Amino acid sequence: MTAFSLLVSIVPHNSGEFITKAAAAAGAAGGTILMGRGTASSTLMTVFGLGDAAKDLVYIIVPSDIKQTVAAAVKAAAAGKKKHFGILFSIDTSAFLRGGSLVQGDCMGTEKAEQLITVIVNKGYADEVMAAARKAGAGGGTVLNARGTAREDDQRFFGIQIVPEKEMVMILASKEKAEGIVSAIQSLRCLSVPGCGIAFCIDVDNFTPLGKTDAQ
């Protein structure tokens, strides 16, 4: 069975197609583009260019044996863009599928250096999540608009108030900081009611900034 990897890129809005075209030229079948907004502090903004502005989040699934080739093609294509154009990282899809087992906040049982913390909450609570995450050491994150898929019958059956509109917060953090960030998020009052949100961690590797380097 062929193993697959998920390449994730966060770039300025309307740049998603540029990333998927570069990936397709290197053998990727295509990608999915989501729209979000950056929440990085001014310090990270100067480093990664991920401030309070519209972003494209690009998901590209590729066979693992061409992951490095596709990633290199995307990085090469972005080298002609402005400095701090965006970021690119990859996720082993087996680790991604195991995300459900990490809902309990176990983000330390890994040798990977970086963790992607994903928090899905009812609309309106993303900023509260990010505030707690920053206090625990997170530099910033990306917020995506989403929606719940529960049916009305599910809502009545479980007796939980399910809000269809959601916000998904994605935070990239070092392994050393991930556990503290998740603990801070779990302690939020807005997450104390069943059905208000979930959080889980995913291993990431090959983290690299996109755009011109200081040497260019």
* Large-scale geometry: globular
**In order across it, which strands form the biggest sheet?**
1-3-2-6-7-5-8-4
- Which blocks of ≥5 consecutive residues have pLDDT under 50? 44-50, 94-105
Into which percent range does the helicity of residues fall?
Answer: 25-40%
Total DSSP helices: 7
Tell me the span between the first and last alpha carbons.
41 Å
Order of helices and strands: EHEHEHEHEHEHEHE
- Radius of gyration, in Å, reads 17 Å
Give the helix/strand class.
alpha+beta
Let me know the largest β-sheet: 8 strands, antiparallel, barrel
Tell me how many strands there are: 8
Q: Which strand-content bin applies to the residues?
A: 25-35%
Q: What does this 3D model show about the protein?
A:
By secondary structure, this protein is an alpha+beta fold. The protein has an eight-stranded antiparallel barrel with strand order 1-3-2-6-7-5-8-4, surrounded by four helices. About 9% of the residues have low confidence.
Label this structure with key terms:
216 residues; eight-stranded antiparallel barrel; single chain; alpha+beta; 7 helices
List the helices and strands and how they pair.
Elements: E1 4-12, H1 16-25, E2 32-38, H2 42-48, E3 54-63, H3 67-78, E4 86-92, H4 93-97, E5 114-122, H5 126-135, E6 142-147, H6 152-158, E7 165-174, H7 175-186, E8 197-210
Antiparallel strand pairs: 1-3, 1-4, 2-3, 2-6, 4-8, 5-7, 5-8, 6-7
